[in-house]
């Protein structure tokens, strides 16, 4: 029986792309979702990674993606809910719609996909099946500038507990809570120094530390319902 694919949502760039490429190098079939077509997707396709368009900002978009995913595969080894929008808080009339959009991406999409795709994970004939939620260190402390982002990631963190209890023992459900892993294109030197100083390790590690953490969860038969901090010791500062 051929191996079941691993799905990474939002896998066209940065952490998701890194993990997709490393998983493919490790011999796993990989499916990613993306929202915007771009040249980098051809590189992923050339490496045998299946790319499916998805926009999780509406329930219809979530359900449309699930239908196409089920047309692509009859089983899944794992689902990594990585898609995310680090949007700063909107002010005024925009605030409600912006909050709702982050709720859909960070909470409703993982929730509906986990419910509708349980059957794909159950159909996997391999010894282990996993769901991994990408949350964030700020779940623990909130954020003055990204309150809606932090709150919806906190909701995703709580869904980890519920789905771990619901799906045990056949499916393990865990979260990874990064802090600063990769910089954004517009980050200037002052921002970098300030951001690095927030953790005890004082560094910007890059996406390899996330793949190491994902690998740990995918390879460990006895871990479920946990959140793995990958934050350089933010709590120590
Ligand atoms: N980078 C970091 O330092 C940190 C990251 N994290 C978390 O780790 C994960 C990966 O981070 P990172 O790689 O920086 O993520 P990105 O900000 O690069 O976002 C990942 C992908 O999410 C997709 N996405 C955004 N909105 C939607 C939507 N409405 N529907 C479908 N897909 C959407 C984007 O797709 P497209 O590009 O195709 O539009 C994007 O490629 C995220 O969950 C993030 O919150 C947490 C803390 C720190
Ligand atoms: N979807 C995203 N979420 C987050 C990002 C990002 O680039 N995309 N970046 C961060 C920052 O690195 C933050 O951790 C710095 O303190 C948080 N979430």
What is the molecular shape? globular
Total count of helical runs of at least 4 residues: 8
Instruction: Please tell me the CATH architecture by its name.
Output: 3-Layer(aba) Sandwich
Number of strand segments: 7
Strands across the major sheet, in which order?
3-2-1-4-5-6-7
Whole-angstrom Rg: 17 Å
Main β-sheet description: 7 strands, parallel
Query: Hetero groups bound?
Result: NADPH dihydro-nicotinamide-adenine-dinucleotide phosphate, the ligand Nc1nc2c(c(=O)[nH]1)N=C([C@H](O)[C@@H](O)CO)CN2
Question: What's the SSE pattern?
Answer: EHEHEHEHHEHEHHE
Structural class: alpha/beta
Measured by DSSP, the beta-strand proportion falls in: 5-15%
Low-confidence stretches: none
Annotated CATH topology: Rossmann fold
> N- to C-terminal separation?
49 Å
GO molecular function, one term: oxidoreductase activity
Protein name: Dihydromonapterin reductase
Enzyme class: oxidoreductase
Family: Belongs to the short-chain dehydrogenases/reductases (SDR) family. FolM subfamily.
Walk me through the structure:
There is one protein chain. With 237 residues, the protein is α/β, with parallel strands linked by helices. The protein has a single domain, classed as NAD(P)-binding Rossmann-like Domain (Rossmann fold), CATH 3.40.50. The protein is built from eight helices and seven strands. Helix 1 links the parallel strand 1 and strand 2. The site of NADPH dihydro-nicotinamide-adenine-dinucleotide phosphate has 26 residues, from helix 1.
